[in-house]
Amino acid sequence: MAQYRDRRVGQELKKEVNDILRRRVRDPRVQEVNITDVHVTGDLSQATIYYSLLSDRASDAQAAQRGLEKATGTIKRELGSRLTLYKIPELIFERDESVQYGNHIDELIRKLNNPE
After folding, report:
1. Structural domain that includes position 88
2. How many domains, the chain?
3. pLDDT, tens digit, 9 for 90 and up, residues 70-93
């Protein structure tokens, strides 16, 4: 049962961080951020939070990353009051590139099917 704890904590973190970003964080840079996945280390000391954006512009991605880094303290404080963990993990935000990669693969397949 212990080997699944990190995944359960990751799912709970994903749900709570999404809720915190929607309701508590007022920074306009993080309004279009969607949390896609959370990976927690086995000892629950670090959580890597993957996010995606609706925008494809690099300036929006940089602004969102800065906004998330600035809001980390608020997010951790809220998580501390919502979760019953001994210690809230260190939060690391990384952009999820899988959506862009999927779009790129889809475009390549379209080019293969279209001989023009």
Report:
1. 2-113
2. 1
3. 999 999 999 999 998 889 999 999
Residue 47 in tokens: 């959580």
Give the chain's largest Cα–Cα span. Answer: 60
State the DSSP H helix or E strand holding residue 92, giving kind and residue range, or none if neither: strand 90-95
Give 116's contacts (C-beta < 8 A, 6+ positions apart): none
Provide, for the chain, the percentages of residues in helix, strand and coil under a 3-state DSSP scheme, each rounded to the nearest 5. Answer: 55, 20, 25
Among 95, 9, 105, 91, residue whose Cα is nearest residue 46: 91
What pLDDT does residue 47 have?
95
Work out the angle at residue 12's Cα, subtended by the Cα atoms of residues 11 and 14, and round it to the nearest 5 degrees. 65
Distances (CA, A) of 2 to 31, 43, 106, 109: 35, 10, 39, 42
pLDDT of 2 strictly over 60: no
Enter the DSSP assignment of 34: E
The answer to whether 58 and 51 are in contact (CB under 8 A) is: no
- Find the CATH number of the domain harbouring 71: 3.30.300.20
